[in-house]
């Protein structure tokens, strides 16, 4: 053997427990983690199809949609962006992206890679008004409007109600990234006339990362089936993938080998959402976010998103106080308390702390723990500077 | 709520155990399944980077390569194809694909979607000679030659030695799909001058599906960094993804949220390969395949790939005997014995049975079990016809 067996792999795997209070992933509950260990099933087994059907129903519930073309992509959250542009956009098509942070920037990057003419409206850390959106659509006449509902880099939550009516008026598709917002705030795909939405598994849904719920409206489905060119990315080609998921009135055909372990975990995560009820979960989120806001204010933090109604209750951003190095605080909290909080990302890098309360960690106790840790960190990290 | 909580998700999740003796996935060993339940880590945590480094070393060992640009894609095996064409091919580039079954057909489909001029050499169920390959490259002058090492749809194993020398002579990149062959037969990425290779996690490597080891040679890396157009698929853009995996001499930057559970499982699967040793595993595979061949011959089966040296030892294809319906046999074996074997796929649909011996199931005992089941099925399914 030219390349000998590496010594590192002769050592045991050691994974410490950490309390994940950043912008995701979060710690899943035991029922979800246990589901990972169920025996592997083949991707075309009857029992697997049953589980996939359960998942489809669960996604329809959490998205509040009756869309038939509903499934989970075997990839991490941002693959949802890739799936949207790959399926709905052809070279030369116009795309309007509302950018209020890092994820809007990435969406615009991916749309360009798919040959779209991209126009962005940029308001980092703020929301967009209906009038701004209406004007932009009227002028630019995009085929698709892309919105990040909950922007984890800035902690902004973009209101969605009323936008669907505008896009319909101009025959524009409405695409929404709900990776960090779903099940934290209300979301009604059908009632709000949204054409395609996806979410993250590893945040409010409390499953591991790597599996991405997505749903396309009938209108979006029609666009896919009448497009002129082939979908460029086979891995997310809904015409083929939808057949494996039994989304069309045709027999199931093979597209790819799904990860049954992740599907079990997602199924159980969705079952927990059903058990708890979306309304209750959203109520709990609001309550815990309030507790966090109060605590952060008491510690003297200033909010990056000043107006409370514009804040995403799952990820709170506060400004890094004068005389404090954000990296130092993040490292301190990790080292001393084994708690994950994060600094900024993209446009907020170095400027904010991002504190997440998600899924299984959405409890007043966890909020109290992270506040205690921050208090200690502020005290000790400030001290070290003077 | 317009879409009420679905009743199906109020039922408990039930997953039966099945012995997976088809073309993959296979049953992972307990150590790998247990690894799935370790606590979730953030994708940018130090401990995660350590595990990713271990994985990189493990992939370098099983591929026998020193390539720096070595990592695991957060997606199922065929995403390896997408990564190859997306990173190495620009519109108009020429690609030559050796098609000896379904997977070669898919590779050619994906290459076309990426704008390549594709030429295929087709020999379903057979291997290609060095002379055929040399002539085709000399005439067509492709930028990249794509080969399926182990074709699960037909059970053919394409010899690779000597091809790298030819491709180098014509300044052509050599890409190899080892999804079903790696760790079943020898594979030497560097010694055989292969520029890019990927494999499946859920087959010989004995991990769950959904995480795909891939490595690019320095030559391939150079092509990626000097291409004119942007890599069209962000999700597999090696220039960015490679930074998260620490493949370049630069600090790590975020690309996507990895699934830590799958990375733990892959790490342990690679540790088992190190522990056992590649040579021993390949020897064991040969031994078990021999046992299977003998047993199938005793049952009166004819091999789809007549010459034994052309067979892939992890997936054996035998012709469906006269008077037998392959679907009936597959269903019978599943129903009575809870064993997964498969019928044909693509060009072999309805024509063959595909019996896999992979990873943890590569034992003489498992071979004996599947042979017993087949014997019973042949007897009972034939009887039902007359």
UniProtKB/TrEMBL annotation, chains A, B:
PROSITE patterns, sorted: AA_TRANSFER_CLASS_5
Compartment list: Peroxisome
GO CC terms of this entry: peroxisome
InterPro entries in the record: Aminotrans_V_dom (IPR000192), Aminotrans_V_PyrdxlP_BS (IPR020578), PyrdxlP-dep_Trfase (IPR015424), PyrdxlP-dep_Trfase_major (IPR015421), PyrdxlP-dep_Trfase_small (IPR015422), SP_NH2Trfase/AEP_transaminase (IPR024169)
Pfam families, sorted: Aminotran_5 (PF00266)
Biological processes annotated in GO: glyoxylate catabolic process
Domain (Aminotransferase class V) ranges: 33-363
Residue positions, PTM N6-(pyridoxal phosphate)lysine: 203
Chief localisation class: other
Binding site for substrate: 354
Signal peptide from the UniProt entry: none
Enzyme class of the recorded protein, top EC level: transferase
Keywords: Aminotransferase, Peroxisome, Pyridoxal phosphate, Transferase
Gene Ontology MF: a single term: alanine-glyoxylate transaminase activity
Catalytic activity: glyoxylate + L-alanine = glycine + pyruvate
Cofactor section: pyridoxal 5'-phosphate
EC assignment: 2.6.1.44
Family: Belongs to the class-V pyridoxal-phosphate-dependent aminotransferase family.
Protein name: Alanine--glyoxylate aminotransferase
Origin species: Hypothenemus hampei
UniProt lineage: Eukaryota, Metazoa, Ecdysozoa, Arthropoda, Hexapoda
């Amino acid at each position: 053997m030219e390349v000998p067996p590496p010594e590192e792999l002769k050592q045991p795997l050691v994974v410490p427990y950490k309390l994940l209070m950043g912008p995701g992933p979060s710690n899943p509950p035991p029922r979800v983690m246990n589901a990972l260990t169920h025996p592997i099933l083949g991707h075309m087994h009857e029992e697997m199809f049953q589980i996939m059907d359960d998942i489809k129903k669960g996604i329809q519930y959490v998205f509040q949609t009756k869309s038939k073309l509903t499934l989970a992509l075997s990839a991490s959250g941002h693959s949802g962006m890739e799936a949207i542009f790959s399926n709905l956009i052809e070279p030369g098509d116009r795309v309007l992206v509302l950018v209020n942070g890092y994820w809007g920037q990435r969406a615009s990057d991916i749309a360009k890679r798919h040959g779209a003419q991209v126009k962005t409206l940029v308001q980092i850390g703020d929301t967009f008004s209906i009038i701004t959106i209406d004007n932009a659509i009227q002028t630019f006449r995009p085929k698709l409007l892309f919105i990040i509902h909950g922007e984890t880099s800035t902690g902004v939550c973009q209101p969605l109600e009323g936008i669907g009516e505008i896009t319909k008026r101009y025959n524009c598709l409405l695409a929404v990234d709900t990776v960090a917002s779903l099940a934290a705030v209300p979301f009604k795909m059908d009632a709000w006339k949204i054409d395609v939405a996806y979410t993250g598994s590893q945040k409010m849904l409390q499953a591991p990362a790597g599996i991405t719920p997505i749903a396309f409206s009938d209108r979006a489905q029609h666009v896919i089936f009448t497009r002129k060119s082939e979908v460029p990315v086979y891995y997310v080609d809904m015409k083929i993938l939808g057949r494996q998921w039994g989304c069309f009135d045709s027999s199931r055909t093979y597209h790819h080998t799904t990860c049954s372990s992740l599907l079990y975990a997602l199924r159980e995560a969705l079952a927990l959402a059903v058990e708890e009820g979306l309304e209750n979960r959203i109520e709990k989120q609001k309550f815990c976010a309030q507790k966090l806001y109060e605590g952060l204010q008491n510690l003297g933090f200033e909010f990056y998103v000043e107006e409370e109604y514009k804040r995403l209750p799952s990820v709170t951003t506060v400004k890094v106080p004068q005389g404090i190095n954000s990296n130092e605080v993040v490292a301190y909290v990790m080292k001393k308390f084994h708690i994950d909080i994060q600094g900024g990302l993209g446009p907020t890098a170095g400027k904010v702390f991002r504190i997440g309360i998600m899924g299984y960690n959405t409890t007043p106790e966890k909020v109290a723990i992270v506040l205690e840790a921050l208090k200690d960190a502020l005290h000790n990290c400030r001290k070290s500077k003077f």
